[in-house]
Write a structure and sequence with these properties.
Radius of gyration: 22 Å
Strand content: under 5%
Number of domains: 1
Largest sheet: none
Shape: globular
Length: 409
């Protein structure tokens, strides 16, 4: 067996292992979509409460079953070459569809134009959530650029800097978070195009994020702005474009929300599967390792500090798997298609799309973040923490439309 065959076998083994783990985690998560109380009732929590039916269905149960039955049924027929031409022809047209740079620019302009028109009123409605009045308002009013320890700790430094800059420049805290959300939409498009090599795939990914109720809920939020996921996604994009700047963007993300430090395995996997040179991968690995070590050390002594590690709670850990179904109850696209997307990304990986595994790993990381966060710390999982999951889901859909997959059909 030559080296090339050995590497391919190793890649296949990693792909299979990742798929099996991801598929199991998605199935567990989907259980709470079908039966919201089943996991907590059967495996921990609610054991002392009577009258709770673990098999009571949720609002997404029947749409979930119908959607997945149709998608997986069509997938099986496709793999057996038994799909009728009435379906295969439009599907092939969709996979072969590509648009010019001019058309992409026009579509993006239209999408952002409508988004801005329907969102700009939020900048002046003077509406803020309770956490803003309880914590953030005080931080912003007393924060200075040399303040590294007070007002939320070093982990909020970049966010506080950008928010106070927004007030000084525009007289409104919401403007820069709004600009950041627009930038996140554009970056979703750019990263999808970079790894799929299709502008149409980038447009689809951008639309998926844009339609998300959770994204629209926090797109102008002062309490929970999107700076952290914006800088994190930018760090992934820079792996290809300007790799020395990638760790800097990662640092900015961590200084917007320390939770990004837990994303290091996801970043490492993305870099490993990237097409940059081996030397670049090694240099990036060293840079990121140093950043995490230094970052953990600094945050551990800052006033904000790292999340408090508690005694493991099986109830909270299991409850973490139910968070997705509850937080996405009004944002069902991810709930309905997460399982088919996982299978699709595995097939895409087998067809030669390297970053299909990367995106699957990113999605897996986000699904596991809630159980581990709740099981080992005093943190709770709020909806805004799942915006990265929405972005990774959108990019994953874009990957299914990539050129390599198209050529394999």
């Amino acid at each position: 067996m030559d080296i090339k065959e050995l590497k391919q076998q190793q890649k296949d083994l990693v792909s299979w292992a990742l798929f099996l783990v991801a598929f199991v985690i998605v199935l567990i998560t989907s259980t709470s979509v079908l039966f919201p109380a089943f996991l907590l009732k059967s495996l921990g929590g609610f054991e002392n409460l009577s009258g709770i039916n673990p098999f009571e269905t949720g609002i997404w149960t029947y749409p979930f079953l119908l959607t997945n039955f149709i998608v997986f049924g069509m997938l099986i027929l496709y793999l057996k070459n038994k799909l009728p031409r009435l379906i295969t022809v439009p599907v092939k047209l969709l996979f072969n569809l590509e648009i010019s740079a001019q058309v992409a620019f026009f579509v993006i302009t239209i999408l952002l134009g409508f988004y801005i028109i329907f969102t700009v009123n939020e900048l002046t409605n003077n509406e803020y959530d309770a956490d803003y009045y309880d914590r953030v308002k005080c931080w912003l009013e007393n924060w200075t650029i040399t303040d590294f320890r007070d007002n939320g700790g070093l982990g909020n430094y970049v966010g506080l800097f950008l928010l106070t800059s927004s007030m000084k420049i525009f007289g409104n805290y919401k403007v820069v978070p709004f600009i950041g959300s627009i930038a996140l939409l554009l970056l979703t498009y750019l990263l999808t195009v970079e790894i799929s090599k299709k502008r149409f795939a980038g447009i689809v990914s951008m639309v998926i994020v844009l339609q998300s109720g959770i994204f629209l809920m926090y797109d102008t939020s002062v309490t929970y702005p999107n700076f952290w996921i914006l800088f994190y996604l930018f760090s992934l994009y820079l792996v290809y474009k300007k790799w020395p700047i990638s760790p800097i963007s990662y640092v900015l993300s961590a200084l917007s929300k320390p939770l990004t430090l837990a994303f290091l395995p996801m970043t490492a996997f993305f870099i490993y599967h990237s097409s940059v040179s081996r030397v670049t991968k090694i240099l990036l690995a060293v840079c990121y390792a140093v950043i995490v070590v230094v970052g953990v050390a600094i945050l551990s002594i800052s006033s904000g500090g790292l999340p408090k590690i508690l005694e493991f709670s099986s109830h909270d850990f299991i409850g973490g798997f139910t968070v997705v179904s509850s937080e996405f109850r009004f944002d069902g696209l991810v709930l309905l298609f997460l399982l088919p997307l996982t299978a699709g990304l595995f097939l895409a990986s087998k067809k030669g799309m390297a970053h299909a595994d990367s995106i699957m790993f990113l999605i897996l990381g986000m699904l596991l973040s809630a159980p581990f966060m709740q099981g080992f710390s005093d943190l709770i999982t709020a909806p805004y923490r799942f915006i990265p999951l929405i972005v990774f889901f959108a990019i994953g859909v874009g990957i299914l439309l990539s050129k390599r997959i198209k050529e394999a059909i």
